[in-house]
Amino acid sequence: MAKRSWSLVYGGGTMGLMGVLAGDIVALQGPDAVHGIIPRALLQGGSAPAPDQFGRTTVVASMHERKRMMAEEADAFVALPGGFGMLEELLEMTTWSQLGIHAKPVVVLNASGFFDGVFEWMQTAIRSGFIPDAQVGLIGQAHTVEELATIVTTREAAPGRYTFLDWSSENRHGNVQVKRATEDAETCAMPPALMISMFS
């Protein structure tokens, strides 16, 4: 990320892999390259992490507000191996892509086959008629960091999305405020901010 001057939007924690990643990006690019968004209930010790260690932090009231802000600010969504929270955010951003709310890349880093079960489930759902064949590409997968960078910077808007749905009334009422990638571009432009999710 630092080599490409990409910034990080994440859940604002200081522990585990995401804490290490946030700290490394701050060390390499400075605190402006990291934006953590965290609900007040999850703050450790009741105060935001130190900016010189973990970048800028925005404290919000709820998990829903956290995800909305993360989705607004990010230009691509990347999932690393993790637990329930990671899977929930991955599937929500995929569903938003399916519904035409955004046209941003959704990609997993499938290290050591961690996400194989997700793609097996998708194939089962397609065979069972729950997911249209055309939407099999809603989630991209990379097996290396280099492949991930290539997919994020060149990935076209996923096929099979419901682009006929009109979300403008939701935007006016503030319920869905995710900025959209250019629909008619052949490829997505290089993103300045990645939303990376990894909850254990």
Automatic annotation (TrEMBL):
GO molecular function terms listed in the Swiss-Prot or TrEMBL record: hydrolase activity, hydrolyzing N-glycosyl compounds
Transmembrane segments: none
GO CC aspect terms: cytosol
One Pfam family cited in the UniProt record for this chain: Lysine_decarbox
Any GO BP annotation: cytokinin biosynthetic process
Name by which UniProt lists this protein: Lysine decarboxylase-like protein
Originating organism: Stemphylium lycopersici (Tomato gray leaf spot disease fungus)
